[in-house]
């Protein structure tokens, strides 16, 4: 089997390694701006090709022509997007070359926040009230009927990039005026106060075969915009929250039509009434080192399992390994120091340390979820004193 992997940003090393271990011929198409900078696992890649890019964005027509040219002499069996920003390009290529996997219509449910909300609502899944930023009268009616605050969100960015909290109607009009012709690429959504959770899962031939629920310490949007230390931890597996979240994730995957691969889906549990609302999903692994968090608790590396799912394909022969039943917690902070020293954090439960300039991060693991929560709380206080720095949020992704 020949797998073509798209990666406009550097990520997915373990997918590439596992695909090669599975006996695949591995082709990588990546951004020209990464040439000589990215440290790809070259021993596990048969050929690397570079696509001219502008801020890691590739021209759609040129990419289709380039990949079609490659296909003249290479029989491509699968196309996989390793980054969120490549998901739509991979779908377009699959449709053009008539290859298995999700096409452009289905993929929109995993990239376009408006499309995914509309489809989820049609399926009876709770979502915060929303309106597309298209018709001004529709926006006025929405603001009159839905109490502030609201959240102005780009439909296709990742994470908290480009999100703006709106507290009153007078704030909205200048904000959307600033967007100019890009207004229709945004939506306005009801802000719901509550706790944010995520479910990370593996899907094989439309069946969720593994799922695990985790809870953020503070909402990622709040950390991104107001500063703070990012934390998340695996929930007690038999807790009411975990069971409800895994069940809701199953409904979301079915409603949106996930075929195969991995997904990271976020939910909010409303503080007012305890209802769980679907926020957004993706056809990729979670960012912010959530892959390492899940692996610490379960022994499953989602990148590697994704490669196995792709190789198994439509035969549906994929079965995940029996997961470990440990608990894990992750915390990450921007750091004042270029190379922060975390050696003073020496508890036996530490299983991973982040090696990234101006960042400090740890993962702790224990058979006890209580012990994980205790360590996260203590380390969050210590990180604030030892490392914490704040940087205003980005309007667009960086490498």
Gross geometry: globular
Biggest pleated-sheet summary:
8 strands, antiparallel
The secondary structure category is alpha+beta
**What is the CA-CA span between the terminal residues?**
30 Å
The total of beta strands comes to 16
CATH fold topology of the largest domain: D-amino Acid Aminotransferase, Chain A, domain 1
The radius of gyration over CA amounts to 21 Å
Order of helices and strands: EHEEHEHHHEHEEHEEEHEHEEHHEEEH
Tally of helical segments? 12
CATH class of the largest domain: Alpha Beta
Structure description:
The protein is α+β, with helices and mostly antiparallel strands and 399 residues long. The protein folds into 3 domains: 2-100, Rossmann fold; 129-190, 2-Layer Sandwich (Dna Ligase, domain 1), CATH 3.30.1490.20; 194-386, D-amino Acid Aminotransferase, Chain A, domain 1 (2-Layer Sandwich), CATH 3.30.470. 33% of the residues lie in helices and 25% in strands. The chain has 12 helices and 16 strands. It has helices spanning 13-21, 60-71, 87-97, 104-111, 113-122, 136-145, 169-179, 220-226, 240-256, 290-298, 302-312, 369-386; strands at 2-7, 25-31, 47-51, 78-81, 130-132, 150-154, 164-166, 186-190, 194-204, 207-216, 230-234, 261-270, 276-280, 327-334, 350-353, 359-366. The strands form 3 sheets. The chain has an 8-stranded antiparallel beta sheet with strand order 13-12-9-10-11-14-16-15, sandwiched between helices. The protein has a 4-stranded parallel beta sheet with strand order 3-2-1-4. Strand 12 and strand 13 (276-280) form a beta hairpin. The mean pLDDT is 95.
């Amino acid at each position: 089997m020949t797998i073509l992997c798209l990666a406009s940003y550097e990520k997915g090393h373990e997918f590439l390694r596992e695909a090669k271990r599975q006996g695949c011929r591995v082709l990588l198409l990546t951004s020209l701006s990464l040439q000589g900078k990215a440290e790809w696992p070259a021993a596990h890649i048969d050929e690397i090709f570079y696509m001219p890019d502008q801020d890691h964005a590739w021209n759609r027509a040129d990419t289709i022509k380039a990949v079609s040219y490659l296909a003249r002499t290479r029989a491509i069996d699968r196309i996989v997007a390793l980054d969120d920003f490549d998901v739509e390009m991979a779908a377009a290529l699959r449709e053009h070359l008539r290859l298995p996997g999700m096409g452009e219509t289905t993929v929109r449910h995993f990239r376009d926040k408006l499309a995914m909300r509309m489809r989820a609502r049609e399926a009876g899944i709770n979502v915060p009230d929303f309106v597309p930023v298209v018709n001004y009268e529709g926006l006025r009616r929405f603001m009159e009927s839905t109490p502030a605050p609201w959240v102005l969100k780009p439909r296709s960015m990742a994470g908290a990039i480009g999100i703006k909290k709106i507290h009153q109607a007078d704030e909205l009009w200048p904000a959307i005026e600033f967007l100019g012709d890009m207004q229709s690429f945004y939506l306005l959504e009801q802000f719901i106060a509550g706790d944010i959770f995520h479910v990370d899962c593996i899907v094989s031939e439309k069946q969720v075969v593994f799922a695990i629920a985790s809870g953020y310490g503070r909402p990622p949007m709040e950390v991104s915009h107001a500063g703070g230390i990012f934390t998340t931890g695996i929930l007690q597996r038999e807790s009411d929250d975990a069971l409800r979240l895994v069940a809701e994730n199953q409904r979301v995957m079915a409603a949106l039509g996930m075929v195969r691969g991995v997904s990271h889906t976020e939910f909010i549990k409303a503080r007012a009434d305890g209802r769980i609302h679907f926020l957004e999903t993706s056809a990729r692994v979670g960012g912010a080192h959530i892959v390492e968090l899940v692996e610490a608790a379960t022994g499953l590396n989602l990148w590697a399992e994704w490669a196995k799912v792709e190789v198994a394909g439509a035969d549906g022969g994929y079965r995940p390994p029996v997961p470990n039943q440990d608990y894990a917690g992750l915390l990450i902070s921007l750091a004042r120091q270029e190379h922060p020293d975390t050696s003073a954090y020496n508890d036996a439960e530490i299983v991973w340390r982040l090696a990234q300039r101006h960042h400090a991060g740890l993962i702790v693991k224990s058979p006890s979820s209580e012990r994980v929560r205790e360590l996260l709380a203590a380390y969050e206080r210590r990180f604030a004193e030892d490392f914490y720095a704040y940087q205003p949020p980005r309007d667009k992704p960086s490498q």
